[in-house]
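Sample 3 of the quickstart, ligand FAI:
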Amino acid sequence: MVKTALLSVSDKTGVLELAQALHARGVKLLSTGGTAKLLADNGLPVIEVANHTGFPEMLDGRVKTLHPTIHGGLLARRDLPEHMAAIAEHGIETIDMLVVNLYPFEATVAKADCTLEDAIENIDIGGPAMVRSAAKNWRDVVVLTDANQYAGVLAELNDNGDVSTATKFKLSVAAFNRISAYDGAISNYLSSIGDDFDVTQRAEYAGQANSQFIKVQDLRYGENSHQTAALYRDLYPAPGSLVTAVQLQGKELSYNNIADADAAWECVKSFDVPACVIIKHANPCGVAIGATLGEAYDKAFKTDSTSAFGGIIAFNGVLDGAAAAVVAKQFVEVLIATDYTAEALEVFKAKTNVRVLKIDMSQVKKSGSAWEQGRNAQDIKRIGSGLLIQTADNHEMDLADLKVVSEKQPTAEQLKDMLFAWKVAKYVKSNAIVFCAGGMTLGVGAGQMSRLDSAKIAAIKAENAGLSLQGSAVASDAFFPFRDGFDVVVDHGAACVIQPGGSMRDDEVIAAANERGVVMVLTGVRHFRH
Ligand SMILES: NC(=O)c1ncn([C@@H]2O[C@H](COP(=O)(O)O)[C@@H](O)[C@H]2O)c1NC=O
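Result:
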């Protein structure tokens, strides 16, 4: 039963209302300096911790609640007579509810002008110590570490002034999670500081990488049925990212569905005109732009209608009934769009297995940090007993940065086609060769150990789909090490080629372009994707 509550919060949001409600229930209020002042100024009878412990706050607030009267009151097990006798012997009263949020370390170090001293002073000591004490003694102490928890707990407080055991345990777990994230942030920050203590020159990659991921759901199995799996999200997911998707209907998403949906979504949202991406096994088997999403779908489907069977289809806009009716003709595993009209949803209602996902893009910004733009800032890959961490490949090619190296100059249409092909190639597993024309993929060669084979496969795919490659644009995600791969794409009809350049044999490849009367454009940037 909550008879005494200790409130000590940096972020005072909602704490007055909480304290008022507790007071109305006859709960005795203990509090630290700033919080106590707020409550007292609003007419609440609050006892300052210093008065309660008989020990003043000292060292500029570094020591306020670090006292046996506080920790004894939090940690004593009410079911153990010896514990109760021990605190009674020292005149310590039990504290049954703890309301704490910590010094804003994360927000402080996020400021550009934060000094090491600012950071250190914002490492909360007494708060986490109390939170740990309360959370450890969760059967007897209700611990609140987030203003979002106040209303629920107040609503649940029963006539005995208690909440359920399940709620207390959940609050305890949330408290330890918060402490873990807090300590992780401190460790990340401090372990990125060099011997010169210059916080403006902190290492991009900290000495210890601490991350928090929140479980979204268990999955039926992993990539294969003998593997177990679960989906986690970032502590603070970027707006418009896949983990923010709302599933409107359909079967449970599988591990592979999610991985493919992510590939489809990341690719389609990189376009700023109506676009459709169809993914199979993490690679685009059709990508197109159009005047409408329906037109984009038609074109994307044409690239490789065989592979599109059972694919993951993503749109970067609101899907309407007409487009939905066309999409529904094919077997689709997962559908993604920023929204759906009522007519579109009606179309899929009958197809109960189709997983329909909606991803809200309204909070995504066009500029700003990667996070604000709905992207990961970092890319993390698991290897044997380790991680590879890199900045995410968020490079966007600008027309002005292209370098024409062939004698033949590109037409405006060719530049458009090449930029489209280049955008798609970024989302194709290496080695990637992508034939395109008129805002659609014509043939995609993906994931080959040899660029030459990728070129041949891309051409075969186009042929299988009955698509002509005459006059097409080709993107290669990395340079042509020899002219052979280049010759293959030209043999099949490519009229312009976009590639990073940088090979020892660039001269040979550029000479080949001139010899064959083909446009060649260099990006100076590579898009390996393994
Ligand atoms: N030093 C201590 O004993 C101590 N006890 C509680 N705090 C923190 O002091 C803050 C509240 O302070 P105030 O009520 O004075 O505004 C909370 O974030 C709380 O976590 C402390 N501060 C830092 O460690």
